[in-house]
UniProtKB/TrEMBL annotation:
GO terms for molecular function: metal ion binding; metallopeptidase activity. Keywords: Hydrolase, Metalloprotease, Protease, Signal, Zinc. Pfam families: Peptidase_M16, Peptidase_M16_C. This is Insulinase family protein. InterPro entries: Metalloenz_LuxS/M16, Pept_M16_N, Peptidase_M16, Peptidase_M16_C. It comes from the Bacteria. Residues 190-367 form the Peptidase M16 C-terminal domain. Residues 1-20 form the signal peptide. Belongs to the peptidase M16 family.
Length: 441
């Protein structure tokens, strides 16, 4: 009886969490094609104004890479009504913060203000869309900023280029084969007219979703949105090109020499399906089971018990068209990269052969419940999730019910999906080794 009461109490507690986590929202379209999502949260006097554009590195051409990431920076340069260098000063002076980020699939801009500055946030984002100043001064300035970013984060960073090498080996046709930061030579060669044309094509209302989340008066917010965004002209309808990769049927082997490291790394990567698919969600569970933190199977076995590696880790790169599951490790002397790969493969074979235990399965469910709660724990996370689920998944309701999809996955599915995607003939093996050459400055 006591056990039953405890179970009932736990169920009620989880039910309360699910109810508290439900994100209420309203969505509609403006006449110019811009999608709008509103989320009223009166719990704190803050508001997020954000715009996600459906443009990322995959929308570039092979001879002009890096444009989407470049615009992440460039569109802070100024507008017709916001002088160059004043954007962040205006935000800070009004008690706010702002930022932006770019992936292969989309670009996201946002401001967080005290709720009484909502109109300011909406005006600023409408200025970015309608009146950006794209001139040679701004291009030259941001070109230097991005070159320094690449030197700091990639070229002079230990293991800083391993994802670059993985992507260029895993994709042959799809633009996922290059990094969002792109090629500095391409950016140097691009003309002002090319940058202006890129802006005109992609940074348009019918290629964007506006999310306003926080303490808002919904009726007043709608009036301001119409006032500042309603008159922005609709852009030309975008036709997205589709890229289909041939299946990987034999092991791809590659070597990269990094002058910034002393300890070699072994990297193995598998191509996975679109993040919108059920299989991608099953692979998320597999990734967590094998390599999600220090209690995962790979870490406990390879680092804690056998001490084969100094470090072992993995991550899934979930994307709109394809994804990747990437495992990496640094062997501990006297073990080699080959020894480490053997240990990794043994754990993958186990999950392909046997059902994971009920205890481990329940642990996975608990882990993903926590992730679900945490990603919607603040208004900033909610705003980005609302934009993401609309733009990349085509279903805003997933902000509330995606966790149900994870709950519906079975142990049998985990085994079958591991068999389907995590085989030696379907992967890249990258030997990431030290080089005697000096690092770039």
């Amino acid at each position: 009886m006591k056990k039953s009461i405890m179970v009932l109490g736990a169920a009620l507690l989880l039910g309360g969490i699910a109810s508290a986590q439900k994100v209420d929202f309203e969505e509609y379209n403006l006449d110019n094609g811009m999608h709008v999502i509103l989320h009223n949260d009166p719990s704190a006097p803050v508001v997020v104004t954000s715009v996600m554009y459906h443009v990322g590195a995959k929308d570039e051409t092979p001879d002009r890479t890096g444009f989407a990431h470049f615009f992440e920076h460039l569109l802070f340069e100024g507008t017709k009504n916001i002088k160059r260098g004043e954007w962040s000063k205006i935000v800070t002076a009004n008690g706010g913060v702002n930022n932006a980020n770019t992936t292969d699939d989309r670009t996201y801009y946002y401001e967080v203000f005290p709720s009484n500055n909502l109109e300011l946030g909406l005006w600023m984002e409408s200025e970015r869309m309608l009146h950006p100043v794209i001139n040679q001064i701004g291009i030259d300035t941001q070109n230097g900023v991005i070159k320094e970013e690449k030197r700091t984060r990639m070229d002079n960073q230990p293991y800083g280029n391993f994802l670059t090498v993985v992507k260029e080996n895993m994709f042959k046709k799809h633009p996922y084969r290059w990094m969002p930061i792109g090629s500095m030579n391409h950016l140097d060669a691009a003309t002002l007219e090319e940058f202006q044309a890129f802006n005109k094509k992609f940074y348009i209302p019918n290629n964007a979703v506006l999310v306003v989340a926080g303490q808002i008066d919904v009726a007043q917010t709608k009036e301001w949105i119409q006032k500042y965004f309603g008159a922005i002209p609709k852009g030309e309808t975008l036709i997205k090109q589709t890229f289909v990769e041939e299946p990987i049927t034999q092991t791809i082997k590659a070597t990269y020499q990094d002058p910034n490291i002393q300890i070699p790394a072994i990297v193995t990567a598998f191509r996975t399906p679109s993040m919108k698919t059920r299989d991608a969600r099953v692979l998320d569970l597999i990734s967590s089971y094998l390599s999600g933190g220090k209690s995962s199977k790979l870490y406990k076995k390879i680092v804690d018990e056998k001490k084969t590696a100094l470090e072992i880790g993995a991550f899934g790169l979930n994307q709109e068209d394809y994804g990747m599951y990437i495992i990496y490790g640094l062997p501990m002397t006297p073990f080699t990269s080959a020894d480490l790969l053997k240990e990794i493969d043994e754990e993958i074979v186990k999950i392909q052969t046997n059902l994971i235990s009920e205890k481990d399965f329940q642990k996975l469910q608990n882990t993903f419940d926590n992730l679900f709660v945490n990603t919607n724990a603040n208004v900033e996370g909610i705003a980005e999730n609302l934009a993401k689920y609309y733009m990349l998944y085509g279903d805003v309701k997933l902000i509330n019910n995606e966790i149900d999809l994870y709950h519906s996955i079975t142990r049998e599915e985990i085994r079958e999906v591991a068999k389907k995607y995590l085989n030696p003939n379907q992967r890249l093996i990258l030997d990431y080794v030290p080089s005697t050459e000096k690092a770039q400055n």
